[in-house]
Amino acid sequence: MNQNRENFLNKLAQRMGKELQTVPAPMPELVNQYPTTRLTDRTQEQLCEEFVNFARVMMADVVIAKEADVVEAMLNICEKYGGGSIILNADKRLENLGILQGVQAHYETYVWDHNAQDQENIHQAEKANIGIVHAEYGLTESGGIVLFSDKAFGRSVSLLPEKSVVVLRKSAVLPRVAQLAAVLDQKAKQGERMPSCVNIISGPSATADIELIKVVGVHGPVSKIYLLIDDL
User: Fold this and answer.
1) CA–CA dist 176, 169 (Å, integer)
2) pLDDT score, position 177
3) Is residue 32 classed exposed, middle or buried when 0-12, 13-18 and 19+ CB atoms within 10 A define those classes?
4) Where does the pLDDT of residue 2 fall: very low under 50, low under 70, confident under 90, or very high at 90 and above?
5) Residue 194: which residues within 8 A CB-CB, separation 6 or more?
6) What DSSP line would sit under 77-111, residue for residue?
7) Which of 94, 100, 119, 144 is the most exposed place for a label (fewest CB within 10 A)?
């Protein structure tokens, strides 16, 4: 078998006018380190400013509020986008901010329950007008947000409702996906349990597959709203 492979490779190399090479050539020296250094010269405030600009280009609505005003800001968002049935992740961060309690006091609310029977969570997410989640990180380069999934954080909460609201702290905005990869690498090295899914989402769902005409809301939320907490 090895002899046949050697003969085949020799003939192939001969036809191509090259010497047979069984060891890959070394990678050329990189001209720059942009994948890991781009945007890292910005201050955190500058990163957040560019993050907001990119997010708005991606058709996301961005609301900025101090932590003391975050509940009021969330209720204003819910009113602006039609209220109705609202689903939230079972996220202690939403509870600690008072968002869960504030929404429950004014709207029909369902909290993701990993102990629920059969398709109850999916059913509640499908019928909800608004889904509320807390992001892990924001990515300046794309204006996108990063969501980690586990049993308490259902992907459906951000994907199935017509409007999706994402809570994010300014301090959690990263330059780009390279820094997110470094965070995940560090978590893995420390033996932390990794999320079942890492979602990077930039704005509402959209496609321009047909004649380059952009259509929003084809396979996900029609509206994406970022509630950015100014904690700097």
Assistant:
1) 16
2) 94
3) exposed
4) low
5) 184, 187, 188
6) HHHHTT-SSEEE---HHHHHTTHHHHHHHHS-EEE
7) 119
Give the span between the Cα atoms of 204 and 222, in whole angstroms: 6
DSSP string for residues in 35-83: HHHTTTTS-HHHHHHHHHHHHHHTT-EEEEE-GGGHHHHHHHHHHHTT-
- Beta strands 215-216 and 206-207 are antiparallel
Tell me the pLDDT of the chain averaged across its residues: 90
Contact (Cβ atoms closer than 8 angstroms) between residue 109 and residue 86: yes
pLDDT of residue 100: 97
Phi then psi for residue 48, to 5 deg, are -65, -40
- Cα–Cα distance list, 88 to 6, 21, 116 (Å): 60, 57, 14
Question: pLDDT (tens digit, 9 = 90+) per residue, 159-206?
Answer: 999 999 999 999 999 999 999 999 999 999 999 988 889 999 887 766
For residue 180, the SS3 value is helix
- How far is 211 from 190, CA to CA, in rounded Å? 48
Lookup: tokens for 9:
């490779």
Neighbours of 13 (CB within 10 A): 13
